Task: structure prediction
Amino acid sequence: MSGDVAFAGVAEQQRLLARGAISSVELTNLYLARLEKFGESYGAVITIMHERARAEAKRADRERALGRVRGPLHGIPYGAKDMLATVGAPTTWGATPYRKQRLDFDATVVKRLKDAGAVLLAKLAMIELAGGFGYNEADASFTGPGRTPWDRNFWSGGSSSGSGAALAAGLVAFAIGSETSGSILYPATFCGVTGLRPTFGRVSRHGAMALCWTLDKLGPLAHSAADADAVLRAIAGSDPQDAAAVDAPFPVARRRPRLGILAKGTQKTMPAVKRNFEASLRVLAEFCDIAGEVALPDLPYEVAVGTIVRAEGAAAFRELIESGRSRELRNVNDRTGGYIGYATLAIDYIDAQRQRTLMRAAFEKAFGPYDAIVSPTLPTVAYPIGVPFDEAYPKYPGVANLIAAGNLTGWPAIGIPNGFGHSGLPTGLSLLGRPFAEAKLAQIARGYEARTDFHTRRPPEL
Amino acid sequence: MRRFDAKLSDSDLEGIARGIDDNAAAGATLHQKKNQLRNSDDLAITFEADPQ
Result:
């Protein structure tokens, strides 16, 4: 079987399965072989689950032969960030102190994907403890740095580092990642794939490592917006084991979408990021009304999210910190970062949460009339491995990226590839929408993808 | 934090002290005049977004 099918995406693979051109077992074996061949070289994989994957693929084929197709993910192989509990493999949270941890149940997301007929191939690499202790360079996982398949000398982004790298390298058909503040959108951008960060509460976190109870979200990385939308629909919904998770509809746009451009969104970005964004606006204008610039309300987003992550992260890992075992973490900052979080003042944490109330009100006021706010996802391409993040591109800090703000308000966003910059590395475009408007964001992204081919490009060495 | 001293090196403690200074600066930013919270501003204890 050609390796091309590994990059075909969920919808095309489903067409091939439906007409009998391939079986789920064949597709699964193709991916298992690719995971074995490439997984380690991209720092993308922690555990390959041969036995479970083959059993689930056989079940999918057997059901299909009997005329039972569970939906668009039936028989499609995927990978899960190793923060999700699964039967049949360790759940390491990317961190040395938890390398042998076994959680003998399936997280709700894994269970829902199994119910949808998907095939779990592997537990994917991640930044240790999802980055909550302040890591400052790519080498912050016990598996080493995640490498973008576009150039192995550069980072795949984090904390869902393996989810982005494995997808871009054609090692899985889609992947599940998580985002507290940036952990889906960074790897999606650095790896040139689509990342969908759902509204807070759209997806149950039961069985996922907790870093920040008020910020954590699980979501898909995929080869297209349509694939990401299909995966999100399969994993969404209320769950008695996650009080934050709710049932909500997936409304779509019934009229021409109205977009606002984030003001100052291209200031202090790399020239290629600016150039690609301006070209993207021309494409979006073909099917959307671009109604002007929208200023991000002037509030302390980065400081608030940092304070909340430090405090909640220290609470989540209190035992690890108090035992001294956090010193076993790989990244130097992570070894002591837990103690800094431990010392966060309660009044600062509370005031950061109070600021969120103001942020939500300000967002409603500023962004209410628009279907989405569009901006470059990040000011740069992927960071070089071996260089501290703050030394990678000091000339291009960006001004007004929406990642911290969007996470604090709980609003959803989709990140899609929109071109390339230096060293052939991808750049990204993001759309931020109102709560529970993920399907509208995917609809707009599909319109963009229908007019461009960046989401279909493959890294040169693959 | 002194109870953790036995588990930490001098260099670790220096880094932690710098981080705690950063915490204090973050707290000050959350209280800058332009970000002033009023007594009636509640916490976002739970996130509630109305499904459309």
